[in-house]
Fold:
Amino acid sequence: MSAPQSSRALQRGALGMVLLVLAWEGVARGFNLPAYTLPSVSAILGSIFDHRTTLFLAGAYTFAEAFSGYVIGAVIGIALAVVITLIPMTRNAIVPVATSINSVPVVAWSPLILLWFGIGMPSKVVMVALAVSFTVFLSALAGLDRVDRRSVDLMRSFGAGRLAILFRLRLPTALPLIAAGLRVSTVRAVIVAIVTEMLGAYDGLGWVIYQAVLQVDFVKVWSAIFIASAASLAFFGLVGLAERRLVFWK
Amino acid sequence: MSATTLQSPATRPGTSPLVTALFRAVRGLAILLAVLAAVEGLVIVLNVKPWYVPRPTLVLNAILATPEPYVQGFLRTLTETLMGFTSGAIFGVGIAIVFFRARVLRELIFPVFVVSQTIPVIAFGALVVLWFGNTLIAKAAISFYLTFFPVTVNALLGLESVDPRQEALMRSFGASRFQILTRLQLPAALPQIFVALRLASALSLVGAIVGEWFGDTVGLGVLLLQGMYNENVVAIWAAIAMCALLGTGFYAVVAAAERALVFWGAEQ
Structure:
């Protein structure tokens, strides 16, 4: 995509968002919708401002959970894929186990994880790590497998060991796919953290949303949703930026 | 799965696709039983507490002791999943065609879709249940919301990968735009669409389960929550097993439909 074309797409995208906000505001005000149906954007923004300390702290709490789980999950996912490439024998053990764990929808694990790890932060970190590790594992494995057989043979003929082939050839080749997996996982990480928080937590955006639902304060629900969405987008943007730096040849 | 097994019914008239499918199912079942037996043995030998991993027979007994809630929950969650999946798939492909035809609309709306996907489903769930009441529609709506986006993205990708020369050829023969769409572009996009549908089969189940967490009384999501509140790990594992059964079963059906419809072989 050439530069002027992509900047036009960016403008149109921004325009689309502005139109959406205007239509939302117009519908909510024009039809005088009650807050439980659809509060106006301005009311939500006002509520975000009113509850800025609570929302910011809750957002930071959730982000801390999502980020630590994300890092742990990413390390586990990549490490498993590397182990499989270094020791091919382990593939038949690791892949079926990972697939069967993943055959259960990830949210179905959360009651069990909450019982095992308690209501505090650890249960959310474990859930996020579980959700992230499988996605990263699959993309890393696909990337590591993609390496051209002849390139491996060439390096081996020059006397390169398995580790050298891994670091000089396989990992760089796999990097675009790993980075894509990491980028997709960001949004998933925040969502899984919030979902688990809603089942039981002491703090965090999911907890705020749950409390607000109980208090029938739907403007607050929406403001927490806005913050969560913004946090996801920021996380996504940061990882995307790092990806462009790291995978500069793409 | 691979091209060779796909073509086997055609090249070897002796084995029908039904037999191959049956053989696969039996083999899968045998592997599953072997794994469960291994878990059973490991749990006994290592003396794992039921609090972590109960013996599979214990879980099976729990299901067989009171089968009704599990069967009912399975059917309810299946209904919600199917409703969300079908509507999400139809909407996803439809909107992809619209985006494909009208670039302006695509550039205006697509970013909104992207942003909408960052909304935590469960928060959205509270609102949806409020809008639609505690009905099947509410759960299906959450499931729909998770499903349509990947289908849109992949259908668009597939539609755009069509060779423009083929389109020009059809147009030179006087084909209408509708004919080009149904005879060329949609079939060409089918492999990509099915990649998304396989992913969506899992996502629609997640949507249905999460939707049930808002004060429903029947469903697999409800069973999960009840198990958690009663701190009954065996019941949670039983519900997880049912979820896995539903998830893999649905995935297998979608994959089988893919093999039947995209008979010329999808790029995996």
